[in-house]
Write a structure and sequence with these properties.
Layout lengths: L1 E5 L10 H9 L4 E5 L10 H13 L6 E3 L23 H15 L9 E4 L10 H18 L5 E5 L8 H10 L6 E5 H5 L4 H8 L3 E6 L19 H9 L6 E4 L9 H18 L4
Parallel strand pairs: 1-2, 1-8, 2-3, 3-4, 4-5, 5-6, 6-7, 7-8
Length: 279
């Protein structure tokens, strides 16, 4: 499994090369940039250029972009996600796709090869409308991302739309053979269960979001801090046909420093290797 870490751990801060250096020191082979304007302002050419310069100077290979969840430049932890590509209102769906496309354009400067896409918010239900809007969004964004060399990965969330069986149905009905899955193991652990999610989605998994919780809510803790069975998870990872990227996606509210992220990421990667039976 390829090692990566998401800048989500530093979401409260403006992204800069020093934070990226800290993740690299922790053993990351790839970076997932969390697209939020207050953190990584994908609309600011100077900021994008600064981050692109760092990537050109550092040997990281497995890089992805997490779609924007918020359209505003101002953000606080009390602000709910506003970018929803399957919103019931057409104007909001169009605005959401436009915002995601603005973020995707950074692939012209930064070597990103995947984008993680959310289908719906926490309360979205599974029905024909959700299926139709999901198909439209994926088709539209896939066409936009392809010339940029970016592959779409849809993520399982804590909603009905992205339950493993429904997620697979969306990909099957749309004939989206080139679209993969980012399996969020924390979301699965707090809902349908990790083993059930692997069983349904294993042929489509290309990336994992790795974090822990206690099985009831989405806490985004460091691996080993909750109740997720990491040895069993790593056994399932070893059975996948294609080695995925394993991305640590840790909660920004843990208030980590660059130094603590380096050391805790290294410890997390060591835990995963031990769980996989590697020396």
């Amino acid at each position: 499994m390829h090692r990566a870490i998401s800048t989500h751990v530093f979401l409260r801060q403006r992204l800069h090369p020093g934070l990226l250096d800290a993740m690299l020191r922790g053993g990351a082979e790839g970076i997932e940039i969390f697209a939020a304007r207050h953190h990584f302002d994908y609309t600011d050419r100077a900021h994008v250029r600064e981050i692109a310069t760092w990537f050109r100077s550092n040997p990281v290979e497995y890089n992805s972009l997490h779609q924007p969840l918020y359209s505003d430049a101002e953000w606080s932890r009390d602000v709910g996600p506003t970018v929803n590509v399957i919103d019931v209102e057409k104007a909001r769906r169009i605005d959401a796709m436009d915002e995601i496309k603005r973020a995707l354009e950074v692939a012209e400067m930064i070597p990103i090869n995947k984008m993680v896409l959310h289908l719906g918010g926490r309360d979205d239900k599974w029905n024909n409308r959700a299926l139709e809007h999901s198909l439209t969004a994926i088709e539209h964004l896939k066409a936009f991302a392809h010339p940029l060399g970016v592959r779409l990965l849809v993520e399982n969330l804590q909603n009905e739309v992205t339950e493993p069986g429904n997620l697979l149905e969306i990909l099957r009905v749309g004939h989206f053979d080139s679209v993969g899955v980012c399996l969020d193991v924390g979301h699965a652990h707090a809902s349908v269960g990790v083993e059930a999610a692997f069983t349904v989605l294993k042929d489509r998994i290309r990336e994992l979001h790795l974090h822990d919780n206690h099985g009831s809510k989405d806490e985004h803790l460091w691996p080993g801090s909750g109740t997720l069975d990491w040895p069993h998870l790593m056994q399932q990872v070893g059975e996948l046909k294609e080695p995925p990227v394993g991305t640590l996606e840790i909660h920004h509210e843990l208030a980590e420093t660059p130094e603590s992220v380096s050391s805790r990421a290294a410890a997390a990667f060591a835990l995963l290797e031990k769980s996989a039976g590697q020396p």
